[in-house]
Specification:
497 residues, alpha+beta, Phosphorylase Kinase, domain 1, Transferase(Phosphotransferase), domain 1, paralog of FGE (formylglycine-generating enzyme), 3 domains, six-stranded antiparallel β-sheet, four-stranded mixed β-sheet, 11 helices, 22 strands, elongated
């Protein structure tokens, strides 16, 4: 920074502070003297005047943007010895600031932010404007919650993959801004996964991001307060009698119901419940470990499929009964955080309702025999305790896999579908969906082989339908046992008596 360059006039702009100095431009915090407002001034460096045509092409592109969410250009000046433009100073913290400060958003709020960002980018897209890559630091939210986006328009034609690259980048960078354990957390994580291209044929378009964000925002919106009665003294003379309103309303409702019933198709019969296998015995002895060694294990029985929505619903029903006598915490793990008060999964009401009716959830068919998702480690451990079982260690999980599949990489991953034995994702000893469906919590902590000196973290085993390329040998490591995701479930093991 050159102090002598500060507090000088550039046209009618008094330069106050040098915010950034790049190879081509300087960015100043300045005051527009005539109206006493703070602005930003981008100045082309003196030794780069040969690039003034390119600089001004970008300025013209920015000046052509007229959208309430996008920062405005005030003035551009091009002279033989100086070239600069003044533009709006956007207030508030950026998404990058929030991420660095560890201040995530509640899902409904982040859905609102994504909807607004989508609307701004659709404006650029509709005009065919090229833009600089969209980063979290370009999105500002002021103290009143107003969202504004930096003007990223640049000269030239818009590349065909511009939107896809920006959508995918935000999908990768916004995960730390999703508050865990909140209503809608799983839905927001799923949306970010779709933006990255996980579980879909291609990353979402900006219009799709806008539409899904709007749906999430509406689903999580609090219901409006009940209407209040007429204030004392308010005129009632023009209102029809209450009896007449009731009569007319009743007739309208009856007509509407009759019309709907006459047009409603017969509901589809639900598919028959499958006959599922019993737990699979893994004998005692030496077994290969996931990191290439071997270890001795006592005999145990592995559940052949992940815990289903129907099974987990039974667990929650039992907890409700126990709550009447304040005994609903008897299955909690000893280390469970005191602030965790419920084992109800993320988005449970919607998921269970779709499962009961054989409908869809997140665009996928679901029944009571689909693996439960949106559960954290504490939920899984409590369910296992209730079921006189436990979570498998990663060594047991791998031993059961290898006992029925000498080459686990050959197992073909399944999608997230109702449990069925008619799947190729099946070991020879009858264990289902280790390569696909949902990845699974284990009881183990371990070190990632890619970082052998790193800290030990909780291991998540197996493939995920939301992660193309994952399989039975896939593992993840997390230090957050409160993690909930739309592709994360669990299965249990039983000690062999």
């Amino acid at each position: 920074m050159n102090p002598d360059s500060e507090d000088r006039l550039l046209g009618e702009y008094q330069l106050k502070e040098l915010l950034h100095e790049g190879a081509v431009t300087r960015v100043w915090l300045a005051e527009q003297v005539s109206v006493a407002r703070k602005v930003l001034v981008d100045e082309l460096r003196e030794e780069m005047m040969s690039r003034s045509s390119e600089f001004l092409a970008d300025v013209r592109a920015k000046a052509a943007v007229e959208h309430p969410l996008i920062g405005s250009v005030y003035e551009a000046v091009a002279e033989p010895d100086r070239c600069f433009f003044a533009h709006e100073l956007l207030h508030g913290a950026t998404l990058e600031d929030r991420a660095k400060a560890g201040e995530p958003f509640k899902p409904d709020r982040l859905a609102h932010v994504l909807r607004r960002v989508s609307e701004s980018q659709l404006h650029h897209e509709s005009l065919g404007q090229a833009t600089s890559p969209l980063e979290p630091r370009h999105v500002h939210i002021d103290e009143h919650g107003v969202i504004r986006i930096d003007n990223l328009a640049i000269g030239g034609g818009r590349p065909g993959d511009q939107s896809a690259r920006d959508v995918m980048h935000l999908g990768n960078t916004l995960r730390p801004l999703v508050a865990d354990g909140q209503p809608g957390t799983t839905r927001m994580l799923t949306l970010l996964g779709w933006m990255r291209g996980e579980g879909v044929e291609a990353p979402l378009s900006w219009s799709q991001v806008r539409d899904v964000s709007t749906q999430i925002e509406q689903q999580l919106a609090e219901p409006p307060p009940p209407a209040t009665g007429t204030k004392p003294g308010a005129s009632r003379g023009k209102k029809p009698p209450v009896a007449m309103i009731a009569l007319v309303s009743g007739v309208v409702i009856i007509v509407a119901v009759v019309a709907l019933l006459s047009q409603r198709p017969e509901p589809k019969p639900l598919p028959p419940r499958p006959v599922l296998p019993d737990a699979v015995l893994v004998p005692a002895g030496d077994h290969p470990t996931p990191d290439g060694g071997s270890g001795s294990l006592p005999a145990f029985r592995m559940a052949p499929y992940e815990v289903t929505i129907g099974q987990y619903a039974e667990f929650l029903e039992r907890l409700e009964l126990l709550a009447a006598n304040q005994q609903d915490k008897i299955f909690n793990h000893a280390e469970q955080p005191a602030e965790k008060s419920s084992h109800v999964p993320e988005g449970w009401e919607t998921l269970q309702s779709a499962a009961k009716s054989g409908g869809e959830w997140n665009g996928k068919p679901v029944t009571l025999d689909s693996p439960v998702v949106g559960v954290d480690w504490w939920d899984a451990a409590a369910y296992a305790e209730w079921n006189h079982a436990r979570l498998p260690s990663q060594e047991e999980w791998f031993a059961a896999l290898k006992a029925g599949s000498p080459d686990p990489s050959l197992l073909k991953p399944s999608s997230w579908v109702p449990v069925t034995t008619a799947t190729q994702d099946r070991t020879s000893n009858g264990i289902l969906d280790l390569a696909g469906s949902v990845c699974e919590w284990t009881s183990s902590q371990g070190t990632n082989p890619a970082n052998p000196l790193g800290e030990r973290k909780w291991v998540i085993a197996g493939g995920s339908f939301l992660k193309p390329g994952s399989n039975a040998l896939s593992r993840e490591w997390t230090d957050d046992r409160s993690l909930r995701r739309a592709d994360l479930g669990f299965r249990v093991v039983y000690d062999e008596k």
